[in-house]
Amino acid sequence: MDLIAEGLRKAFELIVSMDREVLGITWLSLKVSGIATLISVGIGISLGMIIALTSFPGKKIVISAINTGMGLPPVVVGLFVTVFLWRNGPFGFLDLLYTPSAMIIAQVIIATPIVMGLSVAALQNLPPKLRLQILSLGATRWQMVWIMIREARLPFMAAVMAGFGGVISEIGASIMVGGNIRGYSRVLTTATVMETGRGNFDVAFALSIILLLLVFSVNYLFTMIQQRERPR
Questions:
Q1: Whole-angstrom Cα distance, residue 81 to residue 102?
Q2: Considering its fold, how many domains does the chain have in total?
Q3: Taking every pair of C-alpha atoms in the chain, what is the biggest distance, in angstroms?
Q4: Which DSSP letter does residue 229 get?
Q5: Can you give the pLDDT at residue 105?
Q6: What residue numbers bound the domain in which 176 lies?
Q7: Regions of the chain where pLDDT drops below 50
Q8: How many other CB atoms sit within 10 Å of the CB of residue 224?
């Protein structure tokens, strides 16, 4: 209990004192995961809609692969991104390894299957004849797509929250491709692991509390958007 109380006190001190290093780590965490989530939402929802609204041979196999990708181990993603960005790898010439950009790439790979899988499920859960009914009323294809997105608004927002939650809390890929470099690629999760390894449990506990507050704040914002009453 003393350790928890000390962690709470340390977290309060770090937040109130506006510690520059902690603020920098928190901002980088939000920036990297936020950009990765935005990219994954754009890719995941677009591809999810194409897969859900079209019929083609092997569709069930594709959806099964997407659902499998929802459980991709971050360390495996980190390994493959590291190999591809290594100086002798296919994209080593880009010199992206151990940078925030590499962390964004890894997190996009982690979040995209999550968003895509939930998007496919959201659209497949709509009435099967809804698309035909919308088109029969004279709507264009783009209007039909927009109406279906609105109808699946709640599960789509859940997909966004799940994608963000999957990347803001991951540690394996970030530490492998980012390197946990102080002042450059250190985020809340990697900093927490580092401080725990050093035995600085009060600081690690404080960083964990800040991470939880950050995740809660972002998800609260998403929830307010998701649960907003529809106009009548």
A1: 8
A2: 1
A3: 67
A4: P
A5: 96
A6: 2-226
A7: 231-232
A8: 9
